[in-house]
Write a structure and sequence with these properties.
Elements (H helix, E strand, L loop, with lengths): L2 H11 L3 H12 L2 H17 L9 H22 L8 H4 L6 H10 L2 H10 L2 H12 L4 H8 L3 H26 L1
Helix pairs in contact: 2-3, 2-4, 2-8, 3-4, 4-9, 6-10, 7-10, 8-10, 9-10
Length: about 170
């Protein structure tokens, strides 16, 4: 990569490094593994930078981070260190969002982070991209290669599960 192209790469993608780390951290649940995923993602981004045609650089980079994170998760599953998401097992009864949102607002930061850690990775990633990174549904769909309806569904289910986990923790402490 020539120096001018490297400068353009740095201007385009280095401002998104904390978002990249944040997504990787929530996918891997480990600081060290997240750093490895981000490093791998930036190496991939440099390699494929010629294919970047402008547009939303944050979404483009986060899609690479997501892919690197899922590759890491697959390798970890092969070694038996993660649990995969089971649609039937992890499904939660559909309820209105009122009580869940109320619980989320009352939860302490530590309770909320612990409950977020407990979410299946597909829901955790969607919630992190929306609530922590501020991506739009369209951007999340672009990052994940998903239809917007799936993004909306995952987000709603993530919030419900999070509300249920917080409710159960609140019940245990009472």
């Amino acid at each position: 990569m020539d120096p001018a192209e490297l400068k353009r790469f740095e201007r385009t993608f280095l401002p998104h490094m904390s978002a990249a780390y944040n997504l990787a951290r929530w996918l891997t649940r480990s600081d060290q593994d997240a750093q490895d995923v981000v490093q791998e993602a930036y190496l991939r981004a440099v390699r494929f930078f010629g294919g970047f045609r402008g547009g939303n650089s944050k979404a483009w980079l986060l899609s690479i981070v997501r892919n690197a994170g899922y590759t890491w998760l697959q390798r970890s599953q092969a070694h038996g260190t993660t649990v995969s998401f089971d649609e039937q097992l992890h499904d939660v009864e559909d309820r209105s969002q009122g009580p869940e949102m109320e619980l989320l607002q009352r939860a302490t930061r530590q309770d909320l982070l612990a409950a977020l850690e407990a979410l299946p990775v597909e829901f955790r990633e969607t919630l992190v991209l929306r609530e922590l990174e501020g991506l739009s549904y369209k951007e999340i769909a672009e990052v994940g290669g998903l239809p917007i309806g799936t993004v909306m569904s995952r987000l709603a289910r993530a919030r419900r599960i999070l509300g249920q986990v917080l409710s159960e923790r609140g019940t245990k402490e009472d």
